[in-house]
């Protein structure tokens, strides 16, 4: 058991956002699974477990949501069914690798969180503004990372539309077609039993597309997410003793970038212009690496 906790601790120390997102989802799933088993054995009922689940699932009822505002975040880390989390985590892993490779860890985290928030917003708006859904808004709730994972999927397809995956029994398929299939599947399910979940998927898909298009124009929609993350990171970060120096050499070295290998802003602007005109596929390996280093530096 100690080795398991050590593995979890090490996973968070390695600063791999993709593995960390998957691990958080798995930990929450396992905790809920064990809790459900324990409560079923001790109470012979799922009633208490369902009550607990209500406090981490996002409600469609705005009045209830106001009393549980944290659920807009907790819902997209929560799964109840085994196949639900497996499907979501596989998609997150496959398409998240692309986002992480080209844009870095923080962009991936931003996409995941923004996708979840957009999915929750779509769920809330549709269920309270569209007459077809309004009767369900009183009792409907939502859990699952599908909106977040579809945001990552559509973002990867927008970033590299002609990138291919080798699918079992099918062969190579461009990811733009895979993403389109998931979006169409969500549209068709928007009038089914899981209408709320599928509406949330569409919110995630929308933000995934918008995120990449804005990034290609030089606007990072994830900056507010980074700012909040940095705020809390600085709160819990151990403070180091303040060291003051008056040497001119030290001050100069603080601001110089010569020899660091970091691309200049002019280089980044030229690369972004090239992406806007010809897409990511037109970039050379060196240009992709420069863009990645710049994203790490700015974040």
Automatic annotation (TrEMBL):
It comes from the Bacteria. Keywords: Hydrolase, Membrane, Protease, Transmembrane, Transmembrane helix. InterPro entries: DUF6576, Peptidase_S54_rhomboid_dom, Rhomboid-like_sf, Rhomboid_protease_S54. Residues 68-212 form the Peptidase S54 rhomboid domain. This is Rhomboid family intramembrane serine protease. It comes from Adhaeribacter arboris. The chain crosses the membrane at residues 21-39, 82-99, 111-130, 142-163, 175-192. It is a multi-pass membrane protein. Residues 264-297 form the DUF6576 domain. One of its GO terms (biological process) is proteolysis. Its main location: membrane. Pfam families: DUF6576, Rhomboid. GO terms for molecular function: serine-type endopeptidase activity. Belongs to the peptidase S54 family. Gene3D superfamilies: Rhomboid-like.
């Amino acid at each position: 058991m100690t080795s398991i906790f050590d593995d979890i601790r090490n996973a968070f120390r390695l600063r791999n956002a993709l593995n960390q997102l998957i691990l958080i989802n798995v930990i929450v799933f396992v905790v809920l699974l064990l809790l459900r088993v324990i409560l079923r054995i001790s109470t012979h009922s799922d009633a208490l477990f369902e009550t607990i689940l209500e406090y981490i699932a996002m409600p469609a009822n705005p009045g209830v949501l106001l009393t549980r505002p944290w659920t807009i975040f907790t819902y997209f880390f929560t799964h109840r069914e085994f196949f639900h989390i497996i499907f979501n985590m596989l998609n997150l892993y496959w398409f998240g690798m692309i986002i992480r490779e080209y844009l870095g860890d923080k962009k991936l985290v931003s996409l995941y969180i923004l996708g979840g928030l957009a999915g929750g917003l779509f769920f809330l708006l549709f269920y309270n503004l569209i007459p077809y859904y309004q009767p369900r808004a009183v009792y409907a709730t939502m859990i699952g990372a599908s909106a977040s994972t579809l945001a990552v999927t559509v973002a990867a397809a927008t970033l590299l539309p002609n990138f291919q995956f080798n699918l079992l029994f099918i062969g190579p398929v461009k990811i733009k077609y895979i993403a389109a299939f998931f979006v169409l599947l969500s549209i068709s399910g928007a009038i089914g039993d899981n209408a709320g979940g599928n509406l949330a998927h569409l919110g995630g898909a929308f933000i995934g597309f918008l995120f990449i298009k804005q990034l290609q124009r030089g606007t990072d929609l994830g900056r507010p997410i980074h700012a909040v993350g940095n705020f809390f990171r600085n709160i819990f970060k151990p403070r180091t003793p303040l060291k003051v120096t008056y040497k001119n050499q030290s001050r100069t070295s603080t601001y110089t970038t010569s020899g660091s290998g970091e691309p200049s802003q002019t280089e980044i602007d030229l690369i972004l212009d090239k992406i806007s005109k010809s897409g990511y596929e037109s970039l050379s390996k060196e240009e992709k690496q420069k863009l990645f280093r710049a994203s790490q530096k700015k974040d």
